[in-house]
Amino acid sequence: MEDVAEKAQVSVSTASRILTRDRNGRFSDETRQRVLNAAREIGYRPNLAARSLISGQSNIIGFVSPRVVDTPFTALRVLQILTHIEIACSERGYHLLLSSPRYVNGALDEHYMQLLSSGYLDGLIIHDENVNFSLLEPALEFGIPAVVIGNREHPYFVNGDDYLGGALQAEHLLQLGHRHIGVIGLPDNSHYAARLRLRGVMDVASRMGVSTETFYRRDGDFTSESGLAAAHYLLTHHPEITALLVNNDRMAIGALQAARQMGLRVPQDISIIGFDNLPQSADTTPPLTTIDQSVELWGEAAVAMLLRVRQGEQPVSRMMDTRLVIRETTSAPRTGGLR
Amino acid sequence: MEDVAEKAQVSVSTASRILTRDRNGRFSDETRQRVLNAAREIGYRPNLAARSLISGQSNIIGFVSPRVVDTPFTALRVLQILTHIEIACSERGYHLLLSSPRYVNGALDEHYMQLLSSGYLDGLIIHDENVNFSLLEPALEFGIPAVVIGNREHPYFVNGDDYLGGALQAEHLLQLGHRHIGVIGLPDNSHYAARLRLRGVMDVASRMGVSTETFYRRDGDFTSESGLAAAHYLLTHHPEITALLVNNDRMAIGALQAARQMGLRVPQDISIIGFDNLPQSADTTPPLTTIDQSVELWGEAAVAMLLRVRQGEQPVSRMMDTRLVIRETTSAPRTGGLR
DNA sequence: CTGAAAGCGCTTACAG
DNA sequence: CTGAAAGCGCTTACAG
User: Fold this and answer.
1) Res. B36 pLDDT band, cuts 50 70 90
2) Distance (Å) from the C-alpha of residue B68 to the closest C-alpha of chain A?
């Protein structure tokens, strides 16, 4: 920068002001040109660390998603969100720092704390789906502006409407005529979204006057293996089941395998509906009926919201569009009754 | 930091030295304790931006993967690698900065250049698979230590053995007795890996004395849709084909759908072999035979290698284990001859 | 073993 | 419209 100033025959202050597009103080067009040219010739690029030190701004946004035991559980959804966060950040000139804090002995890992206090972060997008612990609180303690994905207990969040999604799942199956339904869920005290999805299911049943006594529940753990096991269990113990309502697509894909292994045709013998509409869900055999939550829009929404929070505004949280995607794994139950 | 020094009744210099575990200068245990305690009580955490400014070290490692047009082409593999890079970084106290540079009018985007010159990066892991442009060169110009994934023209790389993988694909199919083989590849002038895979295929054929005149090739573009289209084309135009050898799993999954749509049974009527062993490839119907390249180990390997490069060492590049994973989409061709 | 002082590369009141 | 100077929070020769 000194070199630039010298070459343009101005002071370092002037160079700095022109290069940072200081809104105050106008400069003669001529000076500006001299500085800009000099910078270009020298190939000057600002040192962000120095700028960050003094301005308190780093132009770095953090995205954190907890690592739970060994399960990168919602990996695909996280990737989708991450991809779009990266695009949104880069369009706005921000860099993206990624971290996946874990819990060791019930405490957040030191590395995350260290990041929060590093001065590196202008803001944080927190993927905070787990009921049992929060990545948000420490961030708030450090005064870092934050926006949350996956949980609605924070003033600023971006989410799908999980309750509505669950309702759509149940409505679809019930309208098709299914009454004996296997529900593959997630443990109640794990994720916000899972709880809401199931609540939506139950509320629709009661609204439609359908008894949930012939709903049989078996929980999985996000993975397709657990979906396979749960489906196998349900279909074996409750042969009257004609449809499987599954809490996420990964487990639904497992359920699809279970049906195949048991020699059941989908959807003729058994209907299956998932939740998430992963990219791969259109490619299953047969293609999966599921719930879409426009995750491809979440990243942009989260970044935009975060930047407004930084500026002291109070943006309103967003519930993204949720809709039923009917493909080929659902149909009316066979009239013949039991399989 | 000043507060810590004051509280511990030492100079700022001393506090700094103790807190950074300066290898030189020993300190009386008592002083050290005083400083450490003071730091703990105050909840002192270093400002990394300042440290970075002076030391020239940021403790940030960058991972970049190019965004090619609108195709987040190897998205799943990238995620797998990214996940493990993140783990490896965090275990070593490094943070991870993510960027996905694009090309605008043939030039790398300004945002990437800005990142390179920001002083934020201690090193770079570059996912550089595309033959047509390189993210590596600009990094080297800025003198940033770098390690490459997906390309072996750089001194330091981590890769799978794509040539061997292609050879394994072909060998498997040929040993089963297939001679009329549809090859779904990628354009020759796109990716290093794709080219090598195909070369392995061809070399094995000639080594086994099998004519490749009954190999029919049709290229896709990574996506399952393109795999579906290519498979459909091949199976329609060359009904004598008994096996499909596909350059990646995403396209293989599309091929699986094509077979299904055409009423062909896999593997009885048509065998299919993919490449990558994506997490979802075990969950297809039927489960996909494919090539595994231990991608779950690449992240750790890349980070370890990068850190050694930073220290001025010259680590040897790594070619990761590549092996055939036989599942249920391949079998001997039907003896009856044509379908 | 410990401290005073300079300096990393930038920005920003404060003067003019 | 422009410059001299202080300072962001830390580290590191240089002395003692």
Assistant:
1) confident
2) 13
